[in-house]
Amino acid sequence: MGVRTSGKGRYAGQMTEWKAFTVDHRDKIAQVTLTGPGKGNAMGPDFWRELPLIFAELDSDPEVRAVVLTGSGKHFSYGLDLPAMAPTFGPLLAERAFAAPRTEFLNEVRRMQASVTAVADCRKPVIAAVSGWCIGGGLDLIAAADIRLASADAKFSLREAKVAIVADIGSLHRLPGIIGDGHLRELAFSAKDIDAARAEKIGLVNDVHPDQDAVLAAAHELAADIAANPPLVVQGIKDVLDQPRAGRVADGLRYVSAWNAAFLPSEDLTEAMQAVFEKRSPDYKGR
Q1: DSSP state, residue 40
Q2: Contact 23, 6 (CB under 8 A)
Q3: Whole-angstrom Cα Rg for the chain
Q4: Is residue 28 one of the residues assigned to a domain?
């Protein structure tokens, strides 16, 4: 098969221009690349809207047997694009946020959760190739992949606690089965950064490769190994492996979205947002 490279996709019979991704196809392997437009491939409105559409296409495409997920430039993703997503939080931070803004926030969180869940639900195995920073929402995204590989310069951070947010897009629910409860609690409570060597040690990534080119090549080599096997058997293996945890993850996502809709508004969250825009360190008061 030849190469198909495009910032376009076909959804419900209509051609779609992708703004936050490119999608390339070669020899039964699709490469999905985050492209921003936010700095460091930060995740803004286009990302959340396009991600489930892309993975729905890949799921239904008989020519695709495995997917490589990576980032453009030096970094995988800086995570949520806070300035671009500020309208999502603004109404919730009003002086008196009643039921309507809380309900809309709940709906928005669940839409974002569904975007990442589309990666986990894709019947084709997904291999994440991570270089540079993978922060917050980036970690949510690779937790939904089947396999994670890293370059030696990769760094990971479950950083939501530092911006007064309980992570609600999937890391808290998918990572226990990947790195174990103790390591997850350490990362979530401290919001600290870890390097590729530590990520490999705790099982967050399978292998570490010398640089970005090497990890991407390794991801494609592994994808080719997968694509050479009977596709329905591979999909069946993924279905069987996912079955025990699918319900638990779904229940957890519903719970954390409701929890955040109820309790996320705080003086600390307002302070976190102001600190981001003012490019300073936040001063949290626990209010």
Answers
A1: G
A2: yes
A3: 19
A4: yes
Q: Max alpha carbon distance in the chain (Å)? A: 59
The reply to whether 112 falls in a domain is yes
Cα gap 27→61, rounded to integer Å: 13
Q: Is the pTM of this model over 0.85?
A: yes
Could you tell me if residue 153 is inside a domain? yes
pLDDT in 10s for each residue of the chain, 287 residues: 334 445 555 433 334 689 999 999 999 999 999 998 889 999 999 999 999 999 999 999 999 999 999 999 999 999 998 888 877 776 766 656 678 888 888 999 999 999 999 999 999 999 999 999 999 999 999 999 999 999 999 999 999 999 899 999 999 999 999 999 999 999 999 999 999 999 999 999 999 999 999 999 999 999 999 999 999 999 999 999 999 999 999 999 999 999 999 888 888 888 887 887 788 889 898 88
Q: How many domains does the chain have?
A: 1
